[in-house]
Amino acid sequence: MVLSRDGKVHFDEDSYKILGDWLTEVAAANPRTIVVLNTDGPVAMLWLDDVEAVIQAWYGGQGMGTALAREAISAIRLMR
Question: Which of 18, 35, 40, 43 is the most buried (most CB within 10 A)?
């Protein structure tokens, strides 16, 4: 699951609650959920204890998809 935010998008408290509730539901369905944060700054991670792992991407550019796939595969191998 990839969460993306840039400098033009601002989340208010209600948006974070909705997002957090949704992530908690996803993690309940799959406790091995890995969240990728593609953000421009800090994120309130009230759901952190509900997910298996978090990867902070910080706008990797054109090669980000390949790099994330490699990191996700490495993380999955470590979790086994």
Answer: 35
